[in-house]
Predict the 3D structure of the following.
Amino acid sequence: MASAKNAPAVERNYGTGRRKNAIARAWLKPGKGEITVNGKDITAYFARPVLRMIVNQPFVTLDRVGAFDIQCTVVGGGLSGQAGAVRHAISRALDEFSAEFHKSLRTGGFLTRDSRVVERKKYGRAKARRSFQFSKR
């Protein structure tokens, strides 16, 4: 087994993204624009075009579409939350890659974590706020 000293130096930047209950980890390196999520191609993982658009928004803002290869792992939540988490992770990795990207990403709102989460269900209620149906008789 090769030691850390002899390992090839791979220049990758890392970012963690969160949205709702989803957590994404993204590794970014200069390349041809290939994006893999949990070992699958982005078109296979995010079948809806809207979700792929959300993931690619940081690249569109920076005019760097197809300039980086992304490898992502994402857990938790649904597909919409996962797409938002991947976008946040990619934005943070891009920010780490180059300081000149920071202003554009910040003004686009891609570096801010969307803190909205589902409200918990309370006892004595049907859902978080909805009461049980009233019956007079």
